[in-house]
Amino acid sequence: MVGVFSHSWKKKTALKKAQQELNLPEHSLITAWPTRWGSRQKMIGRVLEQSKALSQVLTEDKKMRHLVPTWQDIDVLESINSALGPLQEFTDALSGEAYVSVSYLKPVLHLLRTSILTEKDEDTDLTKEIKSSALAYTEDKYSDPATQELLDITLFLNPRFKTDYIRAENVPKIKDRVKTEMEEVARKEKRARVSTTDAMSQGATEAAPFTKGKGKRSLSSFFKSKAVPPSSTLQLEDAIKAELDNYLMTPTIDGEEDPLVWWRMHNVNFPWLCKLARKFLCIPATSSPSERLFSASGNIVTCQRSCLKPSKVDMLVFLTKNL
Description:
Elements: H1 2-7, H2 9-21, H3 39-49, H4 51-60, H5 71-84, H6 87-94, H7 105-116, H8 125-141, H9 145-156, H10 171-207, H11 230-249, H12 259-265, H13 271-280, H14 288-300, H15 310-322
Helix pairs in contact: 2-4, 3-5, 5-8, 10-11, 10-13, 14-15
């Protein structure tokens, strides 16, 4: 039915006239594409919106009367639309790439489990079946313990939620994982500082003038050691614990605020946690951003530009997505 109105300008004109007579929105029909997520649900919703106008136009044509949807067809379409319609907004939000999306997975899953995909009394049997299948799919998709831990860490590093939506028995485990990550970040910074200092001292030694004879060592040089003092480890643990406790005591931000802007403003107060936020919050929630990159690459590497070098394609794709 959608194909008839998409390929015939006469049917499009008749549909527009019927929309005006029935005081319906003058919207065009939507065609479902396998590579465009949610397009089938949008097509069904538009058909339901224009069902009266579509029936009027198809009834006037004897060859197309068989395409007029029956009441059974309308019931099926309404059942599908009522089950999948509310999911469209969440899929669009999680498929974004200009804001943090991975930390929203657990709150969205909680909302789907407790509200959106719960069976209601007015739902038909088909709607209930679709909701139960969708809920079972999401539960199975994110049931892996490693995936759950990753989602908990990203949720913990989002100042909007922190320990919300994390099971109480999993909070100590997530804190220990975050502490371990912070210690690793601190050790990397220390090794980088040490290597920089050694390189500077080596350069200064090479630049020093040559002196004859063997220099005498001072008494204090015998007590110097390259090993880290035991107290430094304790100080590092105390600093990490203090930073983590201060972060948990800060109030959560409003839902409309950007977590990345908040971390940029509090970089001085939470230097190690800020680096963890950069590491984990950049993870996309879905594969949509990467698929958009492939689409951009396909628009750049065409038959007329098939001799572009890979490095040039990388730069063009980067400029396309960042300008």
